[in-house]
Amino acid sequence: YRSLAAFKRNESHFFVGEGGTTFRFLAARLSRQVGRFHLRGSPRLFSRPHKGLWDLLNQLNVKTELGPNDLVLD
Prior knowledge:
Layout: H1 2-8, E1 13-15, H2 20-30, E2 37-40, H3 43-47, H4 51-59, E3 64-66, E4 70-73
Parallel strand pairs: 1-2
Antiparallel strand pairs: 2-4, 3-4
């Protein structure tokens, strides 16, 4: 809920906790926006496989920076 509210307020930092679905949909949506966006989540979320999302972002030529608990889209 908080990520959706932040999106509506045109914020650039989002915390998705352990929500894998929220993370994937928000990352895909933000990849189509102009700007730099920072998605933060739990270590557990980032330890799960996200190969499909990485492949999609790569195909869309989205620059990404992956940290242990965050993803930056540029």
